[in-house]
Write a structure and sequence with these properties.
Layout: E1 3-4, E2 27-39, E3 45-46, H1 49-53, E4 58-68, E5 71-75, E6 79-82, E7 86-96, E8 101-108, E9 115-123, E10 132-140, E11 143-158, E12 166-168, E13 171-178, H2 179-185, E14 196-202, H3 206-209, H4 221-227, H5 234-248, E15 256-260, H6 263-269, E16 278-282, E17 288-293, H7 306-316, E18 322-325, H8 330-344
Parallel strand pairs: 17-18
Antiparallel strand pairs: 1-9, 2-7, 2-11, 3-4, 4-5, 4-6, 4-8, 7-12, 8-9, 10-11, 13-14, 13-15, 16-17
Helix pairs in contact: 4-5
InterPro entries: C2_dom, C2_domain_sf
Region (Disordered): 1-21
Domain C2: 15-138
Length: 345
């Protein structure tokens, strides 16, 4: 990454792109991409209360979606109530082919569906380790819709692994506090505020390890009522589940964003340590192990996919200890019995 597909709108604070450096034969690029900021973007909301307090009639809750070679790979956090969002978020990629087309889609985060605010693009090029800044024009329905500033640093390297595009670096997460959800479920994280916290962890490279989505578990009766066409109430229940999910994981000014830099951060996040599809074990040396199974009532991956699931976590959190067990495994049944006995004690 590192060459605008059209001449960048350079200003005194945004230097124009330098000439790309040739890439050695059979080499690919390691790329550091920073989404810096945008200005004069299209409005996604009008007459919002928070925008009005700032003296504005219109605003957006904008985030940028990154697409590399036709593959949507990452996105920034949304910045709320502004037409000049500042992100300063960095993303790291390997095995980027020279001249790969990279697109940035600007979207307005909404509860009932995100609205398109426009897009910009550039092509991958070798900056030979130098940081290059681009001010890219955003277009929306072939009309100007502001600009977005990105910084790109890249250098050539031999292919890594199978040569497929990889995203590396810290794993992003979002924390969604909810007073209503805490009261309804009586599962509060903050006893003083009666809030319940839900986390969304954005793993890298899922399609590379789990190329196809699994169907819902047709053998699980409670799920049949939600997904099966044999149950007339299914569409209503699906909508209710989708609405509940949207409420629990909604993005707003109260949402907290961060990143997990390694296994320690990941295990610290999972302080409750158990669900029906995974649990955490602490070894004699004090090291934690993530134990995953496919005993889900909704989307249970076949046992043949468990090694890929293990590899996915090992790629996202280098150095993590992971075990996988099929739902029918005697060892898993024994582990679950130990957990249930501990709860009952």
């Amino acid at each position: 990454m590192g060459q605008a597909s059209s001449t960048p709108a350079a200003s005194s604070s945004t230097p124009a792109a330098s000439e790309p450096v040739a890439v050695p034969e059979n080499s690919v690029l390691d790329v550091e991409l920073e989404i810096v900021a945008a200005k004069d973007i299209a409005a996604g909301d009008y007459f919002g209360a928070k925008a009005a307090l700032k003296g504005h009639v219109a605003s957006s809750d904008a985030y940028a979606l990154i697409e590399v070679a036709g593959q949507k790979v990452a996105w920034t956090r949304p910045i709320f109530d502004t037409l000049e969002p500042v992100w300063n978020e960095k993303f790291f990629f390997r095995n980027v082919r020279p001249d790969t087309l990279c697109k940035l889609y600007l979207l307005d985060k909404d509860f009932d569906g995100d609205d398109a605010l426009g897009q910009a693009q550039f092509t991958a090029a070798n900056t030979d380790g130098a940081e290059t800044t681009f001010e890219l024009p955003i277009t929306r329905e072939d009309k100007p819709a502001g600009t977005i500033v990105v910084k790109v640093k890249s250098h050539p390297t031999p292919e890594i692994g199978d040569g497929k595009l990889q995203q590396v670096g810290p794993v992003d997460y979002s924390l969604h506090p909810s007073f209503v959800n805490g009261v309804i479920t009586d599962t509060t994280t903050d006893d003083e505020k009666r809030e319940s916290f839900a986390y969304h962890v954005q793993l890298h490279d899922i399609p590379a390890f789990l190329a196809t989505d699994n169907e819902w578990n047709h053998n699980h009766k409670p799920v049949q009522k939600i997904f099966s066409p044999d149950h007339p109430e299914a569409p209503v229940l699906r909508k209710a589940v989708a609405t509940e999910h949207a409420v629990v994981y909604k993005h707003d000014a109260q949402t907290i964003y961060g990143d997990l830099k390694g296994p320690e951060d990941f295990f610290n996040l999972l302080h409750d340590a158990c669900s029906s599809q995974f649990h955490i074990e602490k070894g004699l040396s004090g090291k934690y192990t993530l134990v995953i199974d496919n005993n889900s009532g909704t989307y249970a991956p076949p046992k043949e996919e468990l090694p890929q699931l293990k590899a996915l976590f090992e790629t996202n959190f280098p150095g993590i200890s992971v075990e996988t067990h099929d739902r029918s495994s005697p060892e898993l049944k024994e582990k679950r019995k130990e957990i249930l006995d501990a709860w009952a004690a």
